[in-house]
């Protein structure tokens, strides 16, 4: 922890006269504690960089970066080391930002599996210092651009969420738009054209230092395998500024859809357009493919995009039923993804006590249910609850290993001796036995309730009562 003296040095550096919070607030260019109207008026300001490095804005950005934690970048600096580094170096960093001479470090290239295990997704992890500066930039730029974004854009915007997007999608389908144009942009974050993006940023931002800094973040290299490669296109996922930049670019798509009178929902690069017939959907997909290629330099992935019934597609993890008044349900792919994650946890838990396995499952199951609390189809949750209990019985059966141990433990759980021995020596595999009557009777649902295993169905009922 920093001493009070060290913390005071950082506070003093952040509030130096060169960009004092009091002066900026008098000019209407403060950060979080000024009204949205004043923040929006910054769009014509030639001195936005002063708002970025302003004391309250930087403090807010610092707390956000610390709360998000995250991995170290190419310099190896951890989030916990950031305050000490700023105490010693903030004045120099601030001077470089104000003079337009700051140069970001390359991002650290990391690949993670895509949902469903189909391919890898490239992430670019900025250094902790660059995450701080990007967050400070985002806090100043977001209020300038956000008011002009489409009402049908839901991703990475204050006061908007994926839940609002799926509710609106349900509304469109229930109104009779029972065909969806499900567009997938091919490697969107890797294909963003820097020039096209900067043109759109410069429409509202006139401070050349801000524009130069954003361009530097776009072109800063990516380190992978110890080598740094320069980037001429793309905005890597992983930095606080990337979501806003993606919304700025794709706002042209939103405006085009609005101009044509379409009903749509967009969350980042995931866009669905709802239409009345398959033929009109095919026309929309074809024309939007041309528009995206010509106007934004983006390519639609024809293999993943389709014109189909909404209940055959998924949107933000949800799908819809085919009823006249459609209901939200958890998409099959989302269920399989959860099962895949749980299977890995069950494999790791084979050598652990059952209570520990359940304690590890708790946050995963509760977090999953919080996101899917909008589901109106409950049968799949009952099936998942039953599947999870069977997997836990399977863990127990594997841990017992020997027939003698299995028979002894079954008898402890109230199974008759003859039946316990017959079950323990049946020669069947662990999965079969975990679903057999002897294990269900020995370890009924109430047994797992005592271990505080969360029931997805019970959680859903509680969450919907709260809502």
A few lines on this structure:
With 467 residues, the protein is an alpha+beta fold. It is built from 22 helices and ten strands.
Mean pLDDT over the full residue set: 87
Low-confidence regions:
1-36
Q: What is the count of DSSP helices, taking H or I runs of 4+ residues?
A: 22
The counted number of beta strands is: 10
Radius of gyration: 27 Å
| Quaternary | single chain
- Percent of residues in helices comes to 40-55%
> Which sheet architecture does the biggest sheet show?
4 strands, mixed
The termini sit apart by 40 Å
Largest sheet: spatial strand order? 2-1-4-5
Instruction: Classify the beta-strand content into a percent band.
Output: 5-15%
* Mass-distribution shape: globular
Find the structural class using helix and strand composition: alpha+beta
Structure keywords:
467 residues, alpha+beta, four-stranded antiparallel sheet, 22 helices, globular, disordered N terminus
